[in-house]
Specification:
Elements: E1 2-7, H1 12-26, E2 30-37, H2 45-59, E3 63-69, H3 78-91, E4 95-99, H4 106-118, E5 125-128, E6 140-143, H5 148-156, H6 169-183, E7 192-199
Parallel strand pairs: 1-2, 1-4, 2-3, 4-5
Antiparallel strand pairs: 5-7, 6-7
The chain binds zinc ion.
Length: 235
């Protein structure tokens, strides 16, 4: 399965669905990460870029694309939509994780809104929360109990941001523990990442389904023609 995670700044994807992505990559799924800015407003862009690369490697992502949009200046116009759409076509995702369009940060909201249009032909779109997200009513729960310590380790890669309270282990674990309790799944599931549904398609067996698209309506990049930005295995 191809899984695409989209975020505004280095550390957003990791906070929102880092545990899910670690498990997905471990299960053999192809994880694609697309971060729109280098986070230059909250640190050195070069340093944050390096942290992001380390984090994608830690996750075991197949590809990481880092764009050069200016931090805090994202707007959900045609430029942003076209950028996201072109990476959606590149990754050919079965499922997309993105920001909520109700998020407290305007860059996050811009991406949440732009993704809906950019990924209009995609079958499955979920939005994630970060510890700062206020308005969030999740319907999907994913058990990350077995990788919660790795998620904390993943977030610690972003040491340039270590003064931020929402990147602390107690914020990450606290939110995951709260969602686990809310999920009412069982008493052995202690940490959960949760998501809101934008769109889900199910097949006859009620499994997640990627609805095939007519070749002339969506320009997907064939797998053999994909040029990955960071080829982890060759470094
Ligand atoms: Zn952010």
């Amino acid at each position: 399965m191809n899984i695409l995670a989209i975020g505004a700044h280095p550390d957003d994807i990791e906070l929102g669905c880092g545990g899910t992505l670690i498990k997905a990559a471990r299960e053999g799924h192809n994880v694609f990460m697309y971060t729109l800015t280098r986070g230059g407003k909250s640190g050195q862009a070069t340093e944050r870029t390096e942290e992001l690369k380390r984090s994608a490697k830690f996750i075991g992502a197949k590809d990481l694309k880092i764009d050069d949009y200016e931090d805090t200046k994202l707007t959900p116009g045609s430029e942003l939509i076209n950028s996201i759409e072109s990476y959606v076509n590149f990754a050919d995702p079965d499922v997309i994780f993105t920001h909520s369009k109700k998020d407290v940060h305007h860059d996050h909201r811009a991406i949440g809104t732009a993704t809906l249009e950019a990924a209009r032909n995609s079958s499955n779109i979920l939005t994630y929360e970060i510890p700062l997200t206020v308005e969030f009513e999740p319907q999907v729960f994913y058990d990350i109990t077995d990788v919660i310590d790795e998620k904390v380790e993943l977030i610690e890669i972003f040491w340039s941001q270590n003064a931020k309270l929402y990147l602390k282990a107690n914020a990450i674990k606290g939110l995951a523990e709260y969602r686990a309790l809310q999920s009412r799944l069982n008493s052995h599931i202690n940490y959960v990442e949760s998501f809101e549904v934008v769109k889900l398609c199910l097949d006859k067996q009620f499994r997640l389904m990627k609805v095939p698209q007519a070749a002339d309506s969506v320009k997907r990049v064939p797998e053999q023609e994909r040029e990955l930005e960071y080829a982890w295995n060759k470094r």
